[in-house]
Amino acid sequence: MPSLKDLRNRIASVKATQKITKAMQMVAAAKLRRAQMAAEAARPYAQRMSAVLGNIASGVTVGPDTPRLLAGTGGDQVHLLVVCTAERGLCGAFNSSIARLARDHANRLLREGKTVKIICVGKKGYDILRRQFAAQIIDLVDLRSVRTLGFEQGDQIAQKVLALFEAGEFDVATLFYSRFQSVIAQIPTAQQIIPAQIEAGGVSTDAVYDYEPDEGEILATLLPRNLTIQIFRALLENAASEQGARMSAMDSATRNAGEMIKKQTMTYNRSRQAMITKELIEIISGAEAL
Amino acid sequence: MAPFTFELVSPERVLFSGSVEAVVLPAVEGDMTVLAGHAPMMTALKTGFLVVTDNPGNGKRILIRGGFADINQNGLTVLAERALPAEELTTDVLDHEILQAEMAYDATNDPAAKHVAEATIAQLREAKEALSF
What we know:
- The complex is a heterodimer of chains A (290) and B (133).
- Chain A has helices spanning 4-59, 68-71, 94-111, 123-133, 151-166, 215-289; strands spanning 78-84, 115-121, 137-141, 172-180, 186-194, 210-212.
- In chain A, strands 3-2-1-4-5 form a five-stranded mixed β-sheet, sandwiched between helices.
- Chain A contains six helices and six strands, in the order ααβαβαβαβββα.
- With 290 residues, chain A is of the alpha/beta class.
- Chain B has two helices and ten strands, in the order E-E-E-E-E-E-E-E-E-E-H-H.
- Chain B starts with a strand and ends with a helix.
- In chain B, a hairpin with a 2-residue loop joins strand 8 (67-72) and strand 9 (75-80).
- In chain B, the strands form two sheets. Chain B has a five-stranded mixed β-sheet, with no helix packed on it.
């Protein structure tokens, strides 16, 4: 039976924890608003980009001259997984669900006898994947020092991926991130980025498009840029998802703390009551005995 | 003149969306003006000022750094890699951009990349001069 003082201390500590989780929730909510706005602002560009790319690509027949970013290397022996996670924990299942998706994917590829290489973006994913795939992880991109995600970060990662591709280090690249659907729903997503997935359709024109400079050259610059955009977008979606996940995780933590405080206060009051009753009984029975 | 739909998007945000009279684009093969009913075309852009005329006699300058313009029957869409409206643009910002371009120039050994960086620096200097008017 804990003493009254113990109970009081315990309640005080849970209250302190609750204050922290509450503060974290509010910070996450503020950050979420900004991250969500950034993610939504980036969407039009990515959409237009894929529409434009779809327009051009639908007119191109795959041949030996087609850029390899679009046509692929012809093989699918070596796979590169770009796993984007957060730099910090305390955001529910956010990091582990992305890592799990990547791990399942990697395990399946390994079973099929393929070679797997992994680039981790964000420390948390690295920490999780390192246990099983220490040999496969070739790089870690640290975004901890980055305050606001800019296009440069996406570009930096894209350049890394492109350099590896040019060097023939892999055939297929897949990007893992969490798509932000709403505050309570973030969907871990795997997206193939090399060779580029082209959405069919777009604007159908009867008129012939003029290209300046020629089609091939535009495609050659458009494809790497598309890669950058896809990665940049993934980073933004991830940032929004992270804050959303943290917000709901901290919300439930605050609620749990509240429940715990309620229960402990009840126990505290009961034992206080019991103590008083006991003392009264002692005094009364002492008086009776006289 | 008939208005047409123009959209300017950069990776971070949509800078302009609406109906305009004319747009001057800094295309790689020379500046060009797009009016309503332009033939469908797709062109790469270099660093330079894009001029939007939404009302006759009312132009707006936006500095863009590379990108693409897509002209089709629905209007004109510009995908700019970086875009800075003239109001937000000062010589300090441009100096910073020039410095970054020069750093990119120094950082690379690839002749093609060096050539691109060199052109960017020249175009930025040009933009800086144009701004001081």
